[in-house]
Amino acid sequence: MLTLRTRLFSGLLSLSVLAGGLTACTQPEPATDNESAGSSEPLTLGAIPDQDPEKLQRLNALLADYLEAELAVPVEYKPVTDYAAAVTAFKVGDLDLVWFGGLTGVQARLQVEGAQALVQRDIDEQFHSVFIANENAGLSALDNLGELSTLKGKSLTFGSESSTSGRLMPQYFLQQAGVELSDFRGEVGFSGNHDATIKLVEAGTYEIGALNQQVWEDRLAEGAIDTNKVSVIWQTPAYYDYHWVVNPAVETRYGEGFVEEVQAALLALDPAVPEEKAILDLFGAEKFIATENSNYEQIEAVGREIGKVQ
């Protein structure tokens, strides 16, 4: 016959074994590197609103899905209202990875220590702006930079005030030709984006406009421009422009080496894969290529010259 002490000991041992079994059954799986770094918080994408918001939404939704699969973290696209808002959102940490123009990329990186320019499109190391004119302006194609002086006395609109291809570099080349903004008739306009610039010049609201060459060519291909009313009169020399910039805080959240993973994922977009080709096509690129902060030193210098970089 078992004593009371023996029965109590036996019961406690059984409870101990049961508790141990329950602990083993409920113990979580070991976390991956990204999970242990808090990857439940999404990587946030952003882009300067340089063209039709619907196109930007479609483009970045596809890219977000791709990056989520490649990086094994949640990815979310957050639209912004204007160029300055994209820079501010990057500065305060609301956006982690942003598609900037040359100027906004410089502005953003100067405000976030350790921020890196990661990749650009193949077309961005030799990018151009175009000047377009309404047919009633009486302007013909210009042969060289010096002939920009013939634009004096006309009305002009840029795109966004912080646009590289729609303001910064066109203004720089005008200055190189000895043309100041005060030489134009009335106040120089700022349309907000490249599509709006085309429409304003096409309608005759402004005689001349400056914009991103790629957007112009895309809209021509789509049949969205009335070439009886507006045409290109000059193409600028080449410069570096659009690029992806990443906030270094992502390495704290997702683990060391995550910046390199993001860069590798963007570089790996393959035009031979239909889903990835769709992303590249929306960006107007054959592929992405690596870039670095030093490639935008000219943009920074011009930005400081015209007061857009402090």
Key features of this structure:
disordered N terminus, 15% strand, single chain, 310 residues, 11 strands, D-Maltodextrin-Binding Protein, domain 2, alpha/beta, 5-stranded mixed beta sheet
Please characterize this protein's 3D structure:
The chain is α/β, with parallel strands linked by helices. The protein folds into 2 domains: 36-125 and 241-305, Periplasmic binding protein-like II (D-Maltodextrin-Binding Protein, domain 2), CATH 3.40.190.10; 128-235, Periplasmic binding protein-like II (D-Maltodextrin-Binding Protein, domain 2), CATH 3.40.190. 43% of the residues lie in helices and 15% in strands. It has helices at residues 4-26, 33-36, 53-71, 83-92, 102-111, 164-176, 194-203, 213-222, 250-254, 258-267, 274-283, 297-305, and strands at residues 43-47, 75-77, 97-100, 116-121, 129-134, 156-158, 189-190, 208-212, 230-235, 243-246, 288-290. The strands form 2 sheets. Strands 2-1-3-10-4-11 form a 6-stranded mixed beta sheet, sandwiched between helices. A 5-stranded mixed beta sheet has the order 7-6-8-5-9. The longest helix is centred in the N-terminal third of the chain and has 23 residues, at 4-26. The chain is globular. Residues 1-33 have low confidence and may be disordered.
Largest beta sheet: strand ordering: 2-1-3-10-4-11
Please give the radius of gyration in angstroms. Answer: 27 Å
Largest sheet: 6 strands, mixed
List unreliable stretches of 5+ residues: 1-33
> Which percent bin holds the helix content?
40-55%
Tally of DSSP helical segments:
12
